[in-house]
Specification:
It contains one helix and six strands. By secondary structure, it is α+β, with helices and mostly antiparallel strands.
């Protein structure tokens, strides 16, 4: 459930930070034991995340998001999150 809250917070942050951007792609599937979503905006922001319930209390989530920084650099963050924490890898 924590990841669903984080997901909603991230989507809201993208939306408010990019009021002029339009949604190019928006897909989501949410089930009791797994979820998946993809989002792409006209300002080159893309996000993908999927997760599944590993046991009754722990989720395993992987995903990525990418954007163009204010300096014009392409940034891509790939991550996993599990009961051992959040593990990002940043490419610039």
């Amino acid at each position: 459930m924590k990841f669903a809250i984080v997901l909603v917070a991230c989507l809201l942050a993208f939306t408010y930070a990019n009021e002029d951007a339009e949604i190019v792609k928006s897909e989501s599937e949410v089930n009791v034991e797994d979820f998946k979503y993809a989002l792409e905006l006209t300002n080159h922001i893309k996000a993908f995340q999927e997760g599944h319930l590993q046991d009754k209390d722990n989720w395993v989530v992987k995903g990525e998001y990418e954007f163009v920084s204010k300096e014009g650099k392409h940034v891509k963050v790939t991550y996993t999150a599990d009961d051992h924490g959040y593990h990002p890898t940043v490419e610039q």
